[in-house]
Write a structure and sequence with these properties.
two-stranded antiparallel ribbon; 250 residues; Herpes Virus-1; PH-domain like; phosphatidylinositol binding; transport; alpha+beta; 2 domains; membrane; zinc; Pleckstrin homology domain-containing family F member 2; globular
Length: 250
Amino acid sequence: MVDRLANSEANTRRISIVENCFGAAGQPLTIPGRVLIGEGVLTKLCRKKPKARQFFLFNDILVYGNIVIQKKKYNKQHIIPLENVTIDSIQDEGDLRNGWLIKTPTKSFAVYAATATEKSEWMNHINKCVSDLLSKSGKTPSNEHAAVWVPDSEATVCMRCQKAKFTPVNRRHHCRKCGFVVCGPCSEKRFLLPSQSSKPVRICDFCYDLLSTGEMTACQSSRSDSYSQSPKSSLNDVSDDDDDDEDSSD
């Protein structure tokens, strides 16, 4: 099916439409053999609240962006190579239902579909694309992924010292290794995580100690599945502004 569509006019036209929706700021998406598998709106769990994002699944990449005008204009284009993707289902809780984790070495996050059927279709198609890619390349699935950030709403106090209360002055920060919400004094150190950045990034004292002594596995498992406890935010609270988790200073 995918091979038949690869060089079809219909597929080329569909990809061209997606390119045009992102405008000059987006990267070109048309390459030989690339097929647009599907598209739709998913709710992405960002740092401060869930937000609607437009997603496009190709046979080799996953693309998403902010919705400016539905089906006409998107910005803040993100491109994720599917070879590096693993996905895990998330249990339903409260308003947050039909979700799964998209995990990569550089960035990991939770998304939610409108229905259980839509979730199943997205996950099945993503898994099929990843499986096909790995089969063709002979590579093994990625066993390293960036931490999924705990949303701000999950923490009123630092998740490490359990003492510092967050206020407009005492800001929340995120450890790039475990994803915890931490205070400034608990995350003053930097450590080089090559899969995430070419420069040392903010990590909490706990992860710094583990990384410095080579106990990276323990650090990674400190919150491997935090989304068994989903945030209390409402899925209705969405907006089209920039992703909150893109600010490297946090």
